[in-house]
What does this fold into?
Amino acid sequence: MRPRTWVLLLAAVFAVLQLANVTGRDTPDSKNYLSYALSLSGADKREAAAATIDHFCAGRAAIAHREQNVDVVRFHAPDPAPRVLRECRDQEWRQVQARLAAGQTGGHTVPFMPERFMRIFEVRPGYPVLLVPFVTLFGVTWGVWAAGVVVTCAGGVLAFLVLRTLSVSVPLALTGQALFFVLPSGATAMRPMTEGLLLVLTLAALWGCALVLEGGRRRKGVAVVAAALCALFTVKHSQALFLGLCLAGAGAVIAVRRRWRGLPPVAGVVAPAGVGCAGALGTVLLARLLHYPSMSESVQDLLTDHFARPDRERPWREFFQLQGNFWTEWLRRQLWEPLFPACLAAGVLGARRRPVFGAFLVGAACTGILNQAGHPDINIWGDRLITLAWLLPVLGVPLLLEPLVRRVVVPAQGAPAGLPH
It folds into this structure.
């Protein structure tokens, strides 16, 4: 089969497997994005609230049903789904109606949380805009699921394209696509959250870097990187800032290292690094011009439990103290189950086989670390904030396996291996 057929086949297999979990992937923040999308599609506040609450609570009820089915003590008890669904709806409607009655009716999102908190989601239209055609065509439940499948499959295809642009063989490029699906990057991308789009757009930026550095298509590569950064600004502007800074930093590290070794500069490095620098600067200026929530506001949100408590008088001092506590505990947990560090190490070794592109790959993966550092909450829905770091093994492991594949000796056709003709 042609490579494109294998790519589509892998994507189709992944999509079929996702039918096992059509509901129950939501996080509390998913309500904000879904209500935003329903508002964009023409629903008023109460219509958007009704559809969002029904979808969210149905997911909670499905999870409760599945958990009780395997509970060794309560598996024969009555189905808890109707009760969970009813209690969830009552709780969500009670909060929403109270805020609507208090006049919190502005913006596109339904007021599930205080206005200062909802402002953070009002400035992230990218993912809700993506959801609109899916929920319009397929309804809320299947629309959200289909959007997740499309986004995740797009990430796998981009992983394949990056590796092929680096002249990696088709089997190893397909390995990168498969790794994107089976590692936590795939499960996280399927959640109705921004992380899937962040992964896809970061991979698109890396593809642009590969086009400039390896493919010799500078103009196209620069355009792809610039488009990815612009799209990231609409999805989550802090990620556009992080990626721009990391791309610029990667270019600077390459230039300084080669100068220190007395080597000539590498053609094409300046282009993606320059676009990254311009993107970071543009993100800061545009965010201020549009009065987006600042980093200080984000820190207050973190330390006050989404503004449920009074603002902290010394937020940065507490924030940096929490950073130390968080990373100490995070490292302890990683050493307990060191799969993630091992994958990162393998990715770094693979990135070294393409030192110039590898610098940009490591820089892109570091945006996951920066994203997690901005939210040092050990209980925040698993590892979704740091998921961008998984791009390092997704692309680095196939690069690491490349010399091993080239050394495979194929036995002479027509005779078993090791036997005389």
